[in-house]
């Protein structure tokens, strides 16, 4: 029988589908659809099945020595985070940790504070579909069991962190890191980065982040020696956050100079690192470099989520722009997510732009607590000279000649002597073109020179060209090129083609499954 005489499988399916569609509903009634919401037991079973699938992906990643399977499980972590609860975690642990009763016992202790040894050793009795599901126990090899238990411990830490249960969360985090130190599998490097992040996060929420500084340094040395770039990036950011929380800017700057941040990491970690660099450089008076780092951090950050992070970046960028003598764009203050948080910085910008020293003092005093929480109060204190310079520039453009007494009154200075020194400094810094008449005690403005007759336009164009060339260089480095053709046998080429087809099918299935959950990957 030739292939053309075989019945078409797709044709059969089409006939079945059309017959179902064309079947009339009797009496013209609408079809009844069961809209009963799933029970909590069913939701727990679904969550348990997701965790079991992630355990399979971790096993596959370790055995194949490829991180893409583990990355798939970690990408689903945020959507799974909303569904996990103690019952679902207990079901997953009891069905996965069959070959390691001691590891199962250690994990279950963190889920039930009142559990005893007897209740931990024996799985809880289940009925119905739950008992049928958990009977399908999964036995993993001892080679991968430690990494799977680390992942389960990570889920426990995330659940306790979300519910602010630090009494059990801190011991669970320490147990997670202890198990992580016993593994040395390069395929699980992304998992170790997640563990270090949540380990630092739960200590920060408890207010004990400075206590793990020595540990973080030790973990950083180990990750650098093992070429674990993901964990290295996370630990560098953790240490910078510790230094910045304690206002140890000199230590932070020395640490930055002696470490190399890996660039082949996620955009989230890169955006955090650039924000920390911007804060350090702003304190070190390197405002131009700080402005560049903050601009890049705002671009690397997620655009639909991470609103709090982007608010902090724009707050610091607004102050840095004012310190550079630039005025931030008004459109930033009108965006819905920034309008209320950036309101004090809008008033601050108005005071600096108009050179109103009284308004600047009023805003600084009124929103002092908010500026202290944002860690921008020290930088805002430096803006006083910018406000005075802006006021002098505005007065110089309005009056051809003005007395020092009137100048002191308009600027809000204490005496004409203060106005004299301030104006002399402004003339020296080329803020204004004027002369001081000491005999008459007045300031005489000169005609402003044509800016296009100077080198200022050339400098501005050169700055913009350098910026565009840098963007082009980064885009070129980010391009991905197809692998170079290599001489290989027909069998190897056929095997490679089969692997590529399998990868494409896997990717298509994954995209189809995660089509509705794309927004859950950013938080």
Structure notes:
It is built from 27 helices and three strands. The protein is mainly alpha-helical and 523 residues long. A three-stranded antiparallel β-sheet has the order 1-3-2. The protein has helices spanning 9-22, 40-64, 68-75, 77-81, 86-96, 101-109, 117-121, 129-135, 142-162, 166-181, 189-206, 213-225, 229-245, 249-258, 267-283, 287-300, 307-323, 330-334, 343-354, 357-366, 368-373, 377-381, 383-398, 404-411, 416-428, 456-478, 490-513; strands spanning 401-403, 434-437, 442-445. Strand 2 (434-437) and strand 3 form a beta hairpin. The model is unreliable at 1-31, 113-135 and 516-523 (pLDDT under 50).
Question: Quick recap of the structure?
Answer:
A 3-stranded antiparallel beta sheet has the order 1-3-2. A hairpin with a 4-residue loop joins strand 2 and strand 3.
